[in-house]
């Protein structure tokens, strides 16, 4: 589609999302840069957006931006994409000889007793990990159910792959993450890191992650954090997680992704099918973490070291003749 015939992403009019209006109305600074980046992606994604996309963006900017960013990343990785329109999952593509559906969502902090509390400026508090995991597991379950409904409507075939794509930007406290990332701990029974200390010598004799198969809501009901091990989500090939937004994004689309493969998937995806960001997959009884941007970072580091070395040579060469 020619860019000249694509209406702008942002438009005037009412909307409930403050982020949308802040980016739309900015004249300088990072919000203006965010608007430029969004408008840059939009012409590429516009042919695949449903008829409500731009209107819904005014009320849910993060989720609509995330869907667009996901689609543009797939295109950037060399995949063709398509959309079923206003019904069914957001996007589909072919990975190898299999059709794969991608469903994007951006959960909120939640409500009620299980809500993820907002950070209080100036206060140091423990990270509410269980509440965050409840938001992630709830999003996964909701989209798994959505895929089942799409199968019943015959939009999605039982032979198709399914990927749930979650953006955690709207969930407080998710900015601080570490391996294995929160999304990994939402689908595998991995708890806190722990040490075993000899009580006599006080030496560390063992270390590792605790086994945690469930977390509990405030009501006391248990929620599984092992859906990729107990076959309850076998219909889902993988989950992709990101905290990207229009103002915070990598230079290469998709390098922010954390893709977690389901070892019990009915229709698994090939390891490295995207070649972006970080990927987790099970190898025998081991969970492997694969960084796809490590080679690029390695060569950048080597180039940086070479420049420093040449600068030192010039420095000493200059000194020797003065």
Measured by DSSP, the beta-strand proportion falls in 15-25%
Briefly note the structural class of the backbone.
alpha/beta
Helix content: 25-40%
Number of helices: 7
What value does the average pLDDT take? 90
Which geometry do the CA atoms define? globular
**Unreliable segments (pLDDT under 50, ≥5 consecutive)?**
315-322
What does the radius of gyration come to?
A: 23 Å
Distance between the termini: 63 Å
Number of strands: 12
Q: Could you give the order of strands across the largest sheet?
A: 1-2-3-4-9-10-11-12
- The biggest beta sheet, please? 8 strands, mixed
Which descriptors apply to this entry?
single chain; 7 helices; globular; disordered C terminus; alpha/beta; two-stranded antiparallel sheet; 8-stranded mixed sheet; about 325 residues; about 30% helix
Kindly describe this structure:
This protein is of the alpha/beta class and 322 residues long. The chain is 32% helix and 20% strand. The strands form 3 sheets. It has an 8-stranded mixed sheet with strand order 1-2-3-4-9-10-11-12, with helices on both faces. It has a two-stranded antiparallel ribbon with strand order 5-6. It has a two-stranded antiparallel ribbon with strand order 7-8. A hairpin with a 6-residue loop joins strand 5 and strand 6 (204-211). The longest helix is centred in the last third of the chain and has 27 residues, at 294-320.
Question: Can I get a quick summary?
Answer:
With 322 residues, the protein is α/β, with parallel strands linked by helices. 32% of the residues lie in helices and 20% in strands.
